[in-house]
Design brief:
Blueprint lengths: L2 H17 L7 H12 L1 H4 L1 H8 L6 E5 L7 H7 L4 E5 L3 H13 L5 E3 L3 H4 L9 E7 L4 H8 L3 E11 L2 H17 L2 E11 L2 E10 L11 H6 L3
Parallel strand pairs: 1-2, 1-4, 2-3, 4-5
Antiparallel strand pairs: 5-7, 6-7
Helix pairs in contact: 1-6, 8-9
Length: 223
């Protein structure tokens, strides 16, 4: 394990005792299920090619960062990336600030709900790459995340099994188009702990200003 990732694991376990950040507490399981999983974007050929096309010094946003996955491992692995972490829960946002400080990572933490933050001009369509892991089903997730992506940028959703993700993607296609995106790839790998799927959406035009809607409306009726 990379030295900074090992330090991150120690910080996570220390803070987890009081903040309940993760149910995974075995260091080897943290490596496999959190770190290796977070870095799938840099490992899978199609995703790696897509992100490399954006350049070496890109602005990246992790929506619903939680305990920092995938944003912090990506910031460690790609020090040239300008990473921001969006987390609505205050105690988790404070943990992210602590972890970034102790790891000496120039990471920005924003404590806000995604559907609100996406209407902030300082954040809306300001990122080359937006990532989200274990946040919501794709129809809702795309509405939360695509407004942050600048035209020409990329949204990457970390999902589980390919069969379930295919079904979610089919339901999300119309919404992706409305939000200014297009389906840019569906990448899978089988790991020792199960199947991991990455869904890539390219931003081809600006998102209409009325999106994202409020969370209750999104949950009741997808695009």
């Amino acid at each position: 394990m990379n030295e900074k990732l090992a330090c991150y694991a120690q910080i996570l376990l220390r803070e987890n005792a009081t903040h309940n950040l993760t149910a995974i507490t075995d260091p080897e399981e943290i490596r496999r299920k959190h770190f290796d999983d977070s870095l799938a974007l840099l490992r899978l050929a199609g995703a790696r090619t897509a992100t490399e096309a954006l350049g070496e010094q890109i602005a990246v946003l992790d929506v619903g960062a939680g305990a920092g996955f995938p944003g912090l491992p990506l910031a460690i692995a790609r020090p040239g990336w300008r990473v921001a972490l969006l987390e609505s829960t205050e105690k988790k946002a404070r943990f992210l600030e602590t972890a970034a400080r102790e790891l000496a990572l120039p990471v920005r933490v924003v404590c806000a709900r995604a559907e609100t933050a996406a209407h902030n001009p300082a954040l809306r369509e300001q990122f080359d790459l937006v990532v989200a892991r274990a946040v919501a089903a794709l129809p809702l997730l795309c509405e939360l995340c695509l407004p942050f992506v600048k035209p020409g940028g990329l949204f990457c959703a970390y999902k589980g099994t390919s069969e379930k993700t295919w079904a979610e993607l089919a339901q999300a296609q119309r919404g992706i188009a409305r939000l200014g995106g297009e389906d840019a790839g569906f990448l899978c790998e089988t790991t020792e702990y199960g199947e991991r799927t990455l869904v890539l959406c390219k931003k081809i035009s600006r998102t209409p200003t009325n999106y994202p809607r409020n969370y209750g409306t999104m949950r009741k009726k997808s695009l």
